[in-house]
Specification:
Number of strands of chain A: 25
Radius of gyration of chain A: 23 Å
Number of helices of chain B: 16
Helix content of chain A: 10-25%
Helix content of chain B: 25-40%
Strand order of the largest sheet of chain B: 1-2-3
Largest interface: A-B, 25 and 25 residues
Strand content of chain A: 15-25%
Largest sheet of chain B: 3 strands, antiparallel
Structural class of chain B: mainly alpha
Distance between the termini of chain B: 32 Å
Radius of gyration of chain B: 23 Å
Number of strands of chain B: 7
Oligomer: heterodimer
Shape of chain B: globular
Distance between the termini of chain A: 39 Å
Chain lengths: 592, 426
């Protein structure tokens, strides 16, 4: 029997980027807010200090910052007719745990989606006709436009001190930036990060091939920055330990370095760490959330009553909590009905590795940051004509090599023995003269009827709750897209002067053991039609109006960019709707 | 008082202590516990008192962090043992509710307790004596309004012979000069306000003025820095090498207000002072304090010759600095303004007493968070990573790089600080 706590105005599930943003916005409104976080409290000097945060074995190989599967995991299968099995060691993606969430370990690649990405179904249908899309593709419009989100992208970038070069300032195309981006109301708050040699060489080669390269927008600081809340970040030292690591130098935008110092000073904010929410409670009508139930590290169960519930966990856990709480109709792929679990997506990434003459090229790959890089956007979204190509979607590509970390960066030319003296010698010969972009091709992953999330019928967690089951595979459209993009990318690496280029195309079936990105999206998507979306355009549950669901789980499909910028913009957009509309008149913000 | 005379008296007091002769307290008062006669509705007085209570940083000792305001119980470590701050809420039995206003003023300004007993100077009455009668009564008026808390506190936990309060008579003869602050008419009103706050209510000298063996202020070296409770409270005179000479009035104001300025950040005991006291003071008062501090004299002693760049410790220290320190503090030692302290041209780094320097390196440090500077950046611990020799070398390097010069740090000093940390004896 849960012990009941005093009522709060707002209960937030998860204290990562979106939880922190919503906590800040709603405490500004004077509301009494509690955030409940499954993982531990985390802070820079104590949890990822410079004295040991650059530990590749501990963080990258042994996953130190991440959720331990023995605490909570999910099951995986490629096809609906297969038996799903539980994931016991993370591979394709890394579920975060603890205060700061993914904001602690991200690379800080801070992109905006293209204007057409928000109206994808409408746009592609108009340009190519409805029959151009694969029959089982279930893409949708977001229900919110780029122009509506622009001020919220801007807020997040200024919160973070994003370093970048504008390519479209109020409709004026600016040299050196991304000419394909939507119009931005003002420049980035910081100039781009400095680019190392290989990244600069990529840009030169791309320019010579007729493309318009630009620096990747980075949440790692090109210079010292103080954000609008008065919180300070230091200049990035280009140590190359960003993704999978916390930043000990206060140089990477994270909740810890932008929001939490202000949030923890507020009398109307509190949090519980090491406390896992097990259920969103609803009243007898099923249309009103009454709060949440959580279990603390001592195994005690607590009920936290609240007038407003913000679900701000990671994609998969958002969907799981909705299903376990009986909120919204579960998605059924056979009947093609229901919404919770629908349109689950990931990212379609690949790479092309370039081997260069070691006597002519010394790239010093250890000079890096999580989001340096020179990119091109000619093959993203619908920036190019798909008519003759027979697929839709695309992605940015670039030399975005984010580290020279020794365990991972031991690429050797094909034909080299896999161990022994010759292997060692090849590693030594190639370490400084190899370009390993990592997620060099960062492609979209559109939605399909048979890629979805539901509750596993067999496997259960420590509370006896069914695990989340993911059914996911690549479809031909994505594999074609990736083959086309990887060829284009390899051409640029070749033009840089590589004597050998190894293409690592994305192949099916979807491999749960191979790290791709942590950009799991969908499952509780936003939209305009309650029969095909879980949330309205303000991220408000269609079924339970005092529940708002943050995060990439709201994406109807994933675009060819890293999702965090859009996740945060949507959080600010939703927070504004709560502040300006919902609190004045609590109830559904959209009537259909 | 001449140094010789002071030593002679000190000798006599010591003899008295060792022989166990308590000197009888004089003027034992027959008190009438009639309580206060101040008007609780005198808003102006209560409000002035609230501000003065903040300026005097009373909560620092009289409130246990996170506990009931002013209910006492916080241990104050002195070189002689532990004194526990009493309950100063208006509770009649365990607080000061039964005290008359005159008794309160007497405690504050003369170090006398409820029954006329002598207080220990952990209660900074040698400074508070400069507080005006009016300000003292205003503070009382405010304390009358806080919530009465029943919390009996045994204040005296000193070992024999220091637990004999009467001994303080001799101490007072040596170190206590009763009397309200006398303005210097040749100085500005701002300077005089600053002097009043620094010398009196703010009791800055309690930490920053070197102490004699008996714990009294060595006024020949006023505000030149002193090590206590495991920290070195730095030199706050206008000395160019080891004091505030390199800081402008605005730099000092920013530091006291926000805990950070372009050069430095507060941690340790000063972080608490800023958090509880100076960050809540008016800019005018902070400017007055800075103006007065900037007028405290330079020292004339010459700077030591720098440790030679060819010294092996300097070479090792330089290499370790590049690897371990430069990412935040910069290859040029200039740090990042308001975020990472500058080590170049830093009085703290060059300090004659390296206690804080060694401690911060070994233990790490968290800078204070204030409304003006909420970031609160911290430095991690290097205790597990650097040996005594390595720590000594890197500290010797930063004390003698970028134009600084200061004595080399010895591995033994690091070892002693490490042992002290292990004993947790501060």
């Amino acid at each position: 029997m849960a012990q009941k706590l005093p009522r709060k105005d707002v209960a937030i599930i998860g204290l990562g980027w979106t939880g922190s943003i919503l906590a800040h916005e709603l405490t500004e409104e004077g509301l009494d807010v509690i955030a409940i976080e499954r993982g531990p409290w985390r802070d820079t000097p104590t949890d990822f200090p410079t004295t040991y945060d650059q530990d590749e074995l501990r963080y990258r190989i042994r996953h130190d910052l991440f959720l331990r599967p023995e605490q909570l995991t999910f099951t995986f299968r490629n096809k609906m007719n297969e038996q799903a099995l539980p994931i016991r060691s993370w591979g394709a993606f890394m579920p975060m745990n603890g205060v700061g969430g993914g904001g602690v370990h991200w690379n800080a690649e801070t992109w905006r989606f293209l204007p057409s990405d928000f109206v994808l179904k409408t746009h592609l249908t108009q340009r190519y006709g409805a029959n151009f899309l694969p029959a089982d593709m279930t893409i949708q419009d977001f229900g919110v436009s780029y122009d509506e989100l622009e001020p919220h992208y801007d807020r997040f970038e200024y919160l973070c001190g994003t370093s970048g070069a504008a390519g479209n300032l109020k409709g004026k195309i600016i040299d050196g930036g991304n000419p394909f981006e939507g119009p931005r109301s003002r420049p980035y708050p910081n100039p781009p990060q400095a680019q190392p040699f290989s990244h600069t060489l990529f840009a030169k080669a791309a320019r010579e091939l007729g493309y318009k390269p630009f620096p990747q927008p980075s949440g790692n600081m090109s210079q010292a920055y103080v954000n609008p809340l008065g919180v300070r970040l230091g200049p990035c030292t280009y140590c190359g330990f960003c993704e999978w690591f916390g930043c000990g130098n206060y140089s990477k935008a994270s909740p810890q370095t932008t929001l939490l110092p202000v949030l923890v000073r507020k009398a109307n904010f509190s949090y519980r760490a090491n406390s896992e929410v097990t259920r969103i409670n609803v009243d007898g009508s099923g249309k009103r959330a009454t709060g949440v139930t959580f279990v603390d590290a001592s195994g005690e169960e607590w009920e936290q009553p609240a007038d407003l519930v913000i679900l701000a966990a990671f994609t998969v856990f958002n969907v799981q909590l909705l299903l376990l709480s009986g909120i919204g109709k579960p998605y059924d792929p056979v009947a093609n009905q229901g919404v919770i679990g629908r349109n689950f997506t990931h990212q379609t990434i690949s790479d092309a590795i370039g081997f260069f003459d070691k006597d002519k090229f010394n790239f010093n790959p250890f000079i890096a940051s999580g989001s340096i890089g020179m990119c091109i956007d000619e093959f993203n979204g619908d920036n190019f004509d798909h008519g003759p190509l027979g697929f839709v979607g695309g992605g940015y590509m670039g030399q975005v090599q984010t580290s020279g970390r020794p365990i991972q960066n031991t690429k050797v030319p094909p034909g080299t023995p896999r161990w022994g003296a010759k292997w060692k010698s090849a590693v030594r010969d190639n370490y400084l003269s190899t370009v390993i972009p990592g997620t060099g091709v960062h492609g979209s992953f559109y939605a399909y009827r048979d890629v979805y999330l539901d509750l596993d019928p067999l496997y259960r967690d420590r509370f006896g709750r069914p695990l989340m089951r993911m059914t996911i595979d690549f479809h031909d459209n994505e594999l074609k897209q990736n083959a086309f993009l990887t060829d284009k990318f390899a051409d640029i690496i070749k033009a840089m002067g590589a004597h050998e280029v190894v293409k690592q195309m994305r192949k099916g079936p979807y491999d749960i053991t191979d790290y791709q990105t942590t950009h799991l999206c969908g499952g509780a998507i936003m939209g305009t039609d309650p029969s095909t979306s879980a949330l309205n355009r303000y991220l408000q549950s269609w079924d339970v109006p005092n529940l708002f669901v943050m995060g990439a789980s709201a994406f109807p499909q994933n675009a060819g960019y890293n999702p965090t910028g859009t996740v945060a913009a949507l959080a600010y957009w939703s927070a504004e709707a709560i502040r300006m509309q919902y609190l004045k008149n609590p109830g559904p913000l959209v009537h259909v | 008082m001449s140094e010789r005379r002071a030593r002679r008296i000190a000798g006599r007091v010591l003899v008295a202590l060792l022989l166990g002769f308590g000197v009888a307290a004089t003027g034992r008062a027959q008190n009438n516990p009639s309580g206060t006669s101040l008007d609780p509705q005198n808003f102006g007085q209560v409000e002035r008192g609230r501000y003065l209570t903040i300026a005097g940083d009373c909560a620092s000792c009289h409130t246990v962090p996170g506990g009931q305001p002013f209910a006492g119980g916080r241990s104050i470590e002195t070189p002689f043992g532990v004194v526990v701050a009493p309950n100063i809420t208006p509770d009649r039995e365990t607080g000061i509710g039964a005290w008359s206003d005159a008794l309160f003023v007497s405690a504050l300004r003369r170090g006398k307790g409820f029954r006329g007993e002598l207080l220990y100077p952990a209660m900074p009455y040698p400074y508070y004596t400069k507080v005006t009668e009016r300000d003292a009564l205003d503070i009382r008026a405010y304390l009358n309004t806080v919530k009465p808390v029943r919390n009996p506190v045994v204040t005296n936990k000193l070992p024999f012979p220091f637990d004999v309060r009467e001994e303080m008579t001799g101490w007072n003869t040596l170190y206590f000069k009763e009397g309200e602050f006398k303005p210097d008419d040749t100085k500005s009103a701002e300077w005089n306000r600053g002097a009043y706050l620094v010398e009196g209510l703010g009791h800055c000298g309690a930490c920053h003025t070197p102490k004699t063996k008996l714990g009294g202020d060595d006024l020949t070296r006023a505000f030149q820095g002193f090590a206590l409770q495991g920290w070195f409270a730095p030199n706050i005179t206008n000395d160019n090498q080891r004091g505030l000479g390199g800081w402008s009035v605005a730099d000092i104001v920013a530091y006291l207000k926000n805990g950070h300025n372009a050069f430095s950040a507060a941690t340790g005991i000063m972080a608490e002072e800023i958090s509880l006291s100076s960050s809540h003071m008016t800019d005018a008062d902070l400017k007055a304090i800075a103006t007065y501090l900037k007028d405290l004299p330079n020292q004339t002693n010459s700077r030591p010759a720098p440790v030679s760049a060819s010294d092996p410790a300097m070479a090792a220290g330089s290499a370790m600095y590049a690897d371990e320190c430069s990412a935040c503090h910069g290859a040029d030692g200039k740090g990042v303004p308001y975020l990472f302290p500058a080590l170049a041209a830093s009085a703290n780094v060059r300090s004659t007493d390296p206690t804080s320097l060694i401690r911060v390196l070994l233990e790490g440090a968290r800078s204070v968070a204030t409304a003006g500077e909420p970031t609160s950046p911290g430095m991690p611990s290097f205790a597990w990573k650097l040996s005594d020799d390595e720590a000594a070398a890197v500290l010797t390097y930063i004390r003698n790089a970028w134009g600084s010069s200061a004595s080399a740090i010895d591995a033994r000093q690091v070892g002693e600080e490490r042992a002290s940390m292990a004993r947790n004896d501060r």
